[in-house]
Amino acid sequence: xxxxxxxxxxxxxxxxxxxxxxxxxxxxxxxxxxxxxxxxxxxxxxxxxxxxxxxxxxxxxxxxxxxxxxxxxxxxxxxxxxxxxxxxxxxxxxxxxxxxxxxxxxxxxxxxxxxxxxxxxxxxxxx
Length: 127
Fold this sequence. Notes:
seven-stranded mixed sheet; four-stranded antiparallel sheet
């Protein structure tokens, strides 16, 4: 059974930092793109960041570019999201996601391109 488990969410003041982790089990994702999405109350789930299977290419939503950094450790089957300079508008449930395809040449941005999802972790940024 494939599982993605996020950790690291919590409450932080504006301007602060948080680091999220997503540990995968049940299959290896070392050949698959991985990503982070978020969903705020009353809003649709949106793409935050994605990383190619090799780790050599990343993509970010404009709203987080320059503040968030996605990375991965294929040996640990884990991806990370370092979030700096957090803003109240970053408040949301954050979900990690993994692609079922192997060796995709681009970083997927659409939720429909990801097949496996974590349960989500709450990030709350106070003003």
